[in-house]
Amino acid sequence: MNNLSRRRILQLGAASGALLASRPELGRLAAAQATPAAGPPITIGLLAPVTGVFADFGDLMTKATNLAVEKVNAEGGILGRQLSVIAEDDQGDPAVATERARKLLVQDNVDILMGTVSSATTLAVLPLVNEAQKVFFYPLDGEDKTCLPDGSTNPLVFGIGDTPQQRLVSFVPTIVEQAGGDWYFIGNDYVFPRSVNAVAIDFLNEAGGTVVAEEYVPLGTSDYRPVIDKIANSGATVVFSTTVGTDGVAFTKQAREGGLFDRMTVTGVATFAPEVYSGLQGFAEGVLTADRYSDQIDNEVNAEFVAAFREAYDYQLPIGGTAAACYGAILLWREAATIAGSFDPEPFAKACEGLAMTLPQGDVEIDADNHLLTRHIYLLRIENDTYQIDEDFGEITHPGHEGCSVV
Amino acid sequence: MGHLAMMFAAVNTGLLLKQLFNATSAVSLLALVAIGLFIIFGMMKVINMAHGELFMLGAYTMWWLLARGINFWLNLLAAALVVGLFGVIVERLIVQRLYVRGDLSTLLATFGLSILLQRGVAIAFGDRPQFVTSPFTGGPTLLGNTYPTYQIIATVLAFAVIAAVVVLFLKTDFGLRARATIVNPAMAAALAVNTVRMNALSFALGSALAGFAGALAAPLVSVVPAMGLDWVIRAFLVVIVAGAGSIWAAAGGAAIVGGWEAGFTAIYDATYAQITVLAIVWALVLLRPRGLFSGTGRRWRR
After folding, report:
1. Which chain A residues are Cβ-neighbours of B230 within 8 angstroms?
2. Is the ipTM of this complex over 0.90?
3. Do A93 and A104 contact (CB within 8 A), yes or no?
4. Is-above-0.90 flag for pTM?
């Protein structure tokens, strides 16, 4: 190691300093952990993909979690104990997620685990959680994953995103009524779009509509023009897109330029998520979409969250459900632990069941039977750089373990 | 389901014309990227794994300058210059020191560079998509389909630049030396061609083309740190199909890869378009391992 000169070590030191400066949340995290606490701190394991294809989601999860932890700590912690976050990067990869989850659960022995973005990573982590007997919250939207292979409810796992059934049950008939029932389904070629479309097609048939076509494009495609012109000439009155992330942005830009918005109603889920609004902006003007959260929701908890998030991270874009869910989770935990008088997995999980409170997302209740959040779903209209609430579909409960993907 | 019905529905003159336009436009952009890759590969036998990131840097240059109110068309030029200059630096600092040691070391070095550039841009500007729009909205309508003005102009511009590069290669003194270096570097050096300088120039030119293509594509696609991947993969397919023979071969390869993808997506399905294009590349490599247009020898080298 004599090659590693003193000058080189100084350079490395400067580089890590620069990294801290460029990622203020890291510095804040370090500061939060340094705060003296009454008892031993409660450790939160956060599994967030801050690199890889879901990096943007992982970044928002980390930011929102740290913000909520800071708030709760400033207000006296939970049961007099401070919170500290141990964050690990799962890279959006099930193999990495398994390894990092094991590290958090076994080596760090965290009190509670939260995280993962894609269903594949969530499913990879579930067996470890049961093995370690720790409580696990997955905060993002997606199909039900709180059941056990025998169909009963997993006592330790809670899903606080929303399911496609919740998201679409009122939305699909509303759009059929407004824009007609001839729907063209376009999505990326993997599990999420196919499972969302399966649910959407059920609701579409119930509403008396018909499927003009169902088409899938490989993830990572940058040219959607041939598909868009097929849609434009298909006779459909509605196109329902589940193209995701950067694919969704490319699809929207090319659909807008190619005149698709002038010929039919363009809608969908994931494609128009606030998380990718930085790339969409004017291209998505006037679009109607359904979501579990908008930063325009009118309640005190949300007002405080939005103001704090904007200030802490100098964030001017619309804030989406990813950040709100992680922030809300910490508030749920404080409430549940206070009721249980403990952070031990069994009494804590029991206290979570049936817990009702107001979060940034609106009034929610953790369903005691299926461990999913009963919550409001909103019809949102993208207008002037905000996700305006056009209609509140009201509190919607996921039916049992319908569509549960744990096998 | 419904694919067969859609194939017949596609026999609709308006749609057919529009899909031909889409394919032409796709080929023009892909050819720009692939010719840049081809020049670097043909000249120096360097497999530039960071070519997609040069494309990305072009798009980010466009975004950065546009956000500061600078004229769109000037930014196209600026992107080519900035990324071209960056190419010179990369060639001087990394490639020139390594390529005498063989293909593998430059492949690994440029692969490392591609990761460095992606993460560097992500740390500087974030992973989220950036907003780039074209100076035009909409465009003329023909038989019920809109032909966006920007896409028409971008296609024409791309072909104009390709034509200029072809002229540069076939009609100028630089081109003569470049072609000599491609065909036989040792002989070219013996005949007083400064191959070190040729290498630097060709790396700069290849980079500038990638940067220009990135800036030109920015209003159409999602501007994110990883945006180059889709392009570099297809550009590699083009170079594999075309071989290192001539600049025409690279253009022909782009027409096959880009045209097949757009055309097959138009009449059938995008997933199968990507599968079949790989099958075609595989078949062509088996049949013509030295490149699709290599068989006729000298004719293609001029």
Report:
1. 220-222
2. no
3. no
4. no
Residue B1: the pLDDT is 44
Question: What total of structural domains would you count in chain B?
Answer: 1
Question: Left, alpha or beta for A163 (phi > 0: left; psi -120 to 50: alpha)?
Answer: beta
Give residues with Cβ within 8 angstroms of B297, minimum separation 6: none
Annotate B73-86 with b (16+ C-beta within 10 A) or e (fewer): eebbebbbebbbeb
CB atoms within 10 A of CB A189: 16
pLDDT tens-place string over residues A64-120 = 999 999 999 999 999 999 999 999 999 989 999 999 999 999 999 999 999 999 888
**Domains, chain A, with CATH or none:** 35-162+296-375 (3.40.50.2300), 166-291 (3.40.50.2300)
- d(CA B233, CA B291) in angstroms, rounded, equals 17
* DSSP-derived secondary structure letter, A319: P
For residue A37, the tally of other CB atoms under 10 A from its CB is 15
The verdict on a CB contact (< 8 Å) between A216 and B223 is: no
> How many CA atoms, within 13 angstroms, populate the side-chain half-sphere of residue B24?
15
* CA angle in degrees (0–180, nearest 5) for A150-A154-A160: 130
User: B199, B182 in Cβ contact below 8 A?
Assistant: no
Q: Which of residues 22-51 of B touch A (CB under 8 A)?
A: 22-23, 25-26
Please report, for residues A149, B263, B277, the alpha-carbon distance to residue B272 in angstroms, rounded to integers and kept in the order given: 35, 11, 8
Domain that holds residue B266: 3-301
The string over A369-401, giving b where at least 16 C-beta atoms fall within 10 Å of a residue's C-beta and e elsewhere, is ebbbbbbbbbbbbbeeeebebeeebeebbbeeb
Structure tokens at A127: 């067996």
Reported as type and span, the H/E element at residue A254 is: helix A245-257
Distance CA B8, CA B268 (A): 10
The answer to whether A236 touches A186, Cβ cutoff 8 Å, is: no
A90 touches B at CB < 8 Å: no
Counting beta carbons within 10 angstroms of the beta carbon of residue B170, is it exposed (0 to 12), middle (13 to 18) or buried (19 or more)?
Answer: middle
Helix axes of A225-232 and A245-257: crossing angle, nearest 10 degrees: 60
User: Å from A287 to nearest chain B CA?
Assistant: 17
All residue ranges of chain A with pLDDT < 70 are 1-38
Residue type, B225: P
Which residue of A53, A91, A257 is the best one to mutate when testing the B interface, meaning the one whose CB has the most B CBs within 10 A? Answer: A257
pLDDT in tens, chain B (302 residues): 455 555 555 468 899 999 999 999 999 999 999 999 998 887 778 889 999 999 999 999 999 999 999 999 999 999 999 999 999 999 999 888 887 777 788 889 999 999 999 999 999 998 889 999 999 888 898 988 999 999 999 999 999 999 999 999 889 998 888 888 877 888 888 888 888 888 889 899 999 999 999 999 999 999 999 999 999 999 999 988 887 667 888 889 999 999 999 999 999 999 999 999 999 999 988 888 877 766 544 444 44
Residue B234: count other Cβ atoms within 10 Å of its Cβ.
23
Q: Which of A250, A258, A278 sits opposite B148 (nearest CB)?
A: A258
CATH code, B78:
1.10.3470
